[in-house]
Amino acid sequence: MKNILLFCSDHMRHDALACNGNPFVRTPNLDRLAAGGIRFENSFTPNPICVPARASMTTGNYSHKATGSKDNGGRIHDDQPKLAEHFHRNGYRTYAIGKLHYEPYAPPGEPRLLHGFQYCELCESGRILKQYDPEGKLRGLEDFHDYLYEVGWGGYERAHMIGNNDIHPAPSPLPAEHHEEAWVADRTIAALRRHLDEQADRPFLLWSSFAKPHSPYDPPRPWDTAYDPRRLPEPIGGLADLEGRDRELARRPFRYGWDRVSPQAVQLARAYYYGMVSFHDHQVGRVLDFLDEAGIANDTVVAYMSDHGDLLGDFGNFFKCSMFDGSVRVPFIWRAPGVAEAGKARDHLVGPIDLLPTLTGLTGCPLEHEVDGRDLTPVLKSADAPGRDFFVSQTWDDPEQKYMVRTRRWKYVYCQEGGTEELYDVANDPEERHNMAGEHPGETGRLRKTLVEWCERNGDDQMIADGDLATSPAVTGKPEFQDRIMGWRWF
After folding, report:
1. Residue whose C-alpha is closest to residue 412's, from 441, 384, 372
2. What are the strands of the beta sheet with 119-122, ordered from one edge?
3. Distance between CA atoms of residues 204 and 200, nearest Å
4. How far is CA 206 from the centre of its chain?
5. What CA dihedral angle connects 13, 491, 99 and 332, to 10 degrees?
6. pLDDT at 154 over 70
7. Cβ partners under 8 Å of residue 215, min gap 6
8. Residues with Cβ < 8 Å from 85, sequence gap 6 or more?
9. How far apart are CA 474 and CA 418, in angstroms?
10. If you ran DSSP here, which 8-state letter would residue 261 be given?
11. Do residues 97 and 120 make contact, with C-beta atoms less than 8 angstroms apart?
12. What region does 74 belong to: left with phi over 0, alpha with psi -120 to 50, or beta?
């Protein structure tokens, strides 16, 4: 059976990779991964928030089924199929390195929630520490935090005082070799080496999950100077462009204080984000090099994905929870020796929800349950293989639910608050500048009906009211700045 190596990033935009058409970013290692396999041009997250997106990767189901929530929380239900459990039952040794973001986090002294991973080393960017040990004094909660104390850099991962949801850029206080991205690569290689030394007769499934380029945008030196902020393209659109569109997104800059950030500061944040992308790419390359050096590259299926993207200043916003492409469109690359053509692209509508069924198809380990995701093995083999007519993405719970229906030409977006509709001709308006919902009532109505039928068919009852899409009253007024939601971690 083939080994399985899964790379997962956090907040990685689809267009942040050179192989996906970015003209200025340098991602040579992800480019070489794509050159050896298949990259998908129309790949979308099933939910542009961390926890539900990862639940879908794990189970192959949409988050309203996997956890019962479309928001950033919830435990994966016991009756759901689970990636690591499935492959462990089929003879694999399963490993997880880095950020899993499975909730709820276990308190000190209790077993971690791993959903079938037999071995794990965690880097949750301080989330477990925030909950149980804000001063960072305990050991055994987050392995990367413990590692820093072992090498004389204890507590310095947040010495710049920038939090997980804070866009202020700064170089990491840590040397590059001790940064969390380097640690994930180090521990991934160590786990692979140990497996080959001790259990080479068994295939492995290893989830190598990096926490970046999620904020803080803090590349270590010298990666903080990799991109000149004055030479980078500016964000798409501005806050004024959101008139009549996603109301929550239009309020968000005032909640986070982004409305006070200068254009130059936005450019610097973008430069540091891309510095983080290139540093991340370097770490992925180290792991790919190990596969080659160990002679197992041809025996290993490799997939690369992200849970969601980052608006990175587009339309006056950062982060996720939006159906604009910067948030909802993600990289999805597969290298499956003997199956996938080398260096090809596919325009099929896909996403990380297809991870589990595709892995079962590639390895001959069939699932016992039907899932929402699809086995992409035929698509990896041939560009002529049939695919979806549309892809759905969902996020947040009542009363702020948001949905996308994406076809190859059109994107329909529905926001429960105020019942707003958006329609983009993405073939001719790839930057999503022009909302055409009012100009094409026929297409808007057709895709609205598609979404209603999809929700009814998939038991998404929260989104349906009296046979149509649910609507909630619009929130009025401008919100006050809330510094506590910046996610500061000062341990």
Report:
1. 441
2. 119-122, 93-98, 204-213, 3-10, 300-306, 332-335, 38-43, 344-350
3. 9
4. 17
5. 10
6. yes
7. 11, 162, 163, 164, 165, 166, 167, 310, 318, 319
8. 115, 116
9. 5
10. -
11. yes
12. left
pLDDT confidence of residue 489: 54
Residue that the structure tokens 């800059």 belong to: 253
Sign of the alpha-carbon torsion through 183, 118, 4, 300: positive
Q: How many Cβ atoms from other residues are within 10 Å of residue 159's Cβ?
A: 14
User: What contacts 105, CB < 8 A, 6 or more positions away?
Assistant: 113, 124, 127, 128, 131, 132
User: Quick check: 424 and 405 in contact, CB under 8 A?
Assistant: no
Cα–Cα distance for residue pair 342/17, rounded to 1 Å: 18
Q: What is the separation, in whole angstroms, between the first and last Cα of the chain?
A: 44
Distance set, CA 401 to CA 11, 48, 304, 327, 350 (Å): 20, 12, 28, 16, 22
Q: Where are the alpha helices (DSSP H) in 69-142?
A: 83-89, 127-132
Q: Is residue 436 within 8 Å of residue 446, measured between CB atoms?
A: no
Instruction: Encode pLDDT of 378-400 as tens digits.
Output: 999 999 999 999 999 999 999 99
Dihedral Cα 199, 203, 205, 208, nearest 10 deg = 60
Burial class of residue 105 (count of CB atoms within 10 Å of its CB; 0-12, 13-18, 19+): buried
Backbone angles phi, psi at 219, to 5 degrees: -65, 145
Confidence band, pLDDT 50/70/90 cuts, at residue 479 = confident
pLDDT exceeds cutoff 80 at 487: no
pLDDT tens track for 12-66: 999 999 999 999 999 999 999 999 999 999 999 999 999 999 999 999 999 999 9
User: How many whole angstroms separate alpha carbon 70 and alpha carbon 74?
Assistant: 9
Give the class (CATH, top level) of 3-382: alpha beta
**Domain range annotation of the chain:** 3-382
The dihedral through the CA atoms of 383, 388, 389, 391 has a sign that is: negative
Structure tokens at 241: 């462009």
Q: How much of the chain is in helix, strand and coil states, percent to nearest 5? A: 35, 15, 45
- In this structure, what DSSP letter does residue 18 have? G
Are β-strands 464-465 and 332-335 bridged in parallel, bridged antiparallel, or unpaired? unpaired
* β-strand partners of 469: 464
Instruction: For residue 295, give both structure tokens.
Output: 């002679």
CA distance 302 to 43: 17
